[in-house]
Design goal:
GO biological process, one term: GPI anchor biosynthetic process
Strand order of the largest sheet: 4-5-6-7-11-8-9
InterPro entries: Metallo-depent_PP-like (IPR029052), PGAP5/Cdc1/Ted1 (IPR033308)
Protein name: Calcineurin-like phosphoesterase domain-containing protein
Organism: Dendroctonus ponderosae (Mountain pine beetle)
Helix content: 25-40%
Shape: globular
Radius of gyration: 28 Å
Strand content: 15-25%
Number of strands: 13
Order of helices and strands: HEHEHEHHEEEHEEEEEEEH
Keywords: Membrane, Transmembrane, Transmembrane helix
Amino acid sequence: MRQSRYSTSNQCRATMRLSKKKICLTFWTILTLSYAFYAEFLIYKLKTGSWPFMTCRNEKDCIKILLVADPQIIGNLNEIFSPLSPFTIFDSDRFLKITYYYAYNYAKPHVVVFLGDLMDEAHIANDDDFNSYVRRIFNIFLNPYRLDNNVKHVWLPGDNDIGGEDTDVTPKKLQRFERAFSQSSFHTVGNVTLFKINRLTHIIPAYKKERDFFDTSKIFVGLSHIPLMFRPSPFPEKVINKMQPHVLFTAHEHKSMIISTDALLHKDYHIVPITPESDQIYEYALGVQNMYEILIPTCSYRMGTNKIGYGFAIIENNELRFTNLWSPSRFEHLAVYLILVVLPVLLFSFYKTVGCVKTRSLRYANK
């Protein structure tokens, strides 16, 4: 009789343990799937709710510009832990594609400017790898929007695309980039003229007409991968004196700020850092007194900062309005994923170990 009761009691305990395990497993599965839905889909939509509302007052006189800086898509060579490369490439490309999708649809731009460092390893890539990187760039930033024929795309090279920092700029690298992204140095949309500046090759745009900074019938916008006023030297001075841009959009530093200086004197520089915490719309009258340089943050979560996003500018007559469309932090969500996967494994291993110790203790006690 005692043996029967003891057996029944053990069966009840085993059933209760199994039931608790099922409940815990179900709860953890629901928690993980819910978090995955939030981190992979919902967070991007929710983030747009914090973006400042900015639109044209008069569509006829308005140019909307979306600015993309330093996506630096991952290459095939420099990943630290190469077995994970397929996953890291997939995740990084997907993040860029989703965040760009929301920024593009929010801004509804007339012009999209890519401010260089499109690829991380293009400057050291062979032709086959380079062409595969270009296809990935087009798949991320162009393929979903092929029907938007009225949107102009402007492409600039960065040091990771053609060299200039870790490696030298060579004619082959420069020609390869220009073949893939073939276009002129000047682009005119409405009363706005955008012109490319290549500080890596020290090429000054060929413009024969004399410029008047205070003439705002045509707004001149300079585009450069490497900042100009933020890094003064003789070359930026030549460009600024010749082209007299009303505003410059630059990248490379992976952070955002606005630099202003007197358009004639070029002596004192006033710097305003832009962070997600100081999220606002910045408004300036162009061609009045000051010249402006706006640094655009990186849009890639792989650049060692969580302050990532896209620049959005509206130029209407001679008025400039600017804001950043900040993206959610990706590394935080990847860290939570790691916890959700590793913690159950650790707990399971712990309970298995404790269970084995208890079983051995009971065996020794019964002996």
